[in-house]
Amino acid sequence: LVSKKNNKIVCVIELDDPSHERADRITRDRWLNIIMSIAQIPFVRASVTKIDEEPPVWQTRDAVRPFVSATKSEKVH
């Protein structure tokens, strides 16, 4: 998701299907977790097979709020 206010990445949402249980996808997902962490980009995984479980959308919203409210001239930490 990208902020309309400042065109910065707010967070990345990935929909995980059963293919994420394969060994090659597990390795890829681990790398993606590391990359998102290094880049300090909030990352939400939502399982498409666990439709009854809610992803941590509200916690993520609170975590990314500083990124959304920052203007182009403000530094984002």
Order of helix and strand elements from N to C terminus: EHEH
> Which structural category fits the helices and strands?
alpha+beta
What is the helix tally? 2
Radius of gyration equals 14 Å
The residue-averaged pLDDT reads 79
Span between termini: 18 Å
Question: Approximately how much helix is present in the residues?
Answer: 25-40%
Multimerization state: single chain
Q: What spatial order of strands do you see in the largest sheet? A: 1-2
Dominant shape: globular
Please mark out the parts with pLDDT under 50 across 5 or more consecutive residues, or reply none.
Answer: 71-77
Strand content: 5-15%
Please give the largest β-sheet: 2 strands, parallel
Domain tally: 1
Explained architecture:
The chain is α+β, with helices and mostly antiparallel strands and 77 residues long. Helices cover 38% and strands 13% of the residues. The chain has one domain (12-69). A two-stranded parallel sheet has the order 1-2. The two termini are 18 Å apart. This is DUF2726 domain-containing protein. It holds the Pfam family DUF2726. InterPro entries: DUF2726. Residues 1-54 form the DUF2726 domain.
List keywords for this structure.
single chain, about 80 residues, alpha+beta, two-stranded parallel ribbon, 2 helices, 2 strands, about 15% strand, globular
Short description:
The protein has 77 residues and is α+β, with helices and mostly antiparallel strands. Helices cover 38% and strands 13% of the residues. It has a two-stranded parallel sheet with strand order 1-2.
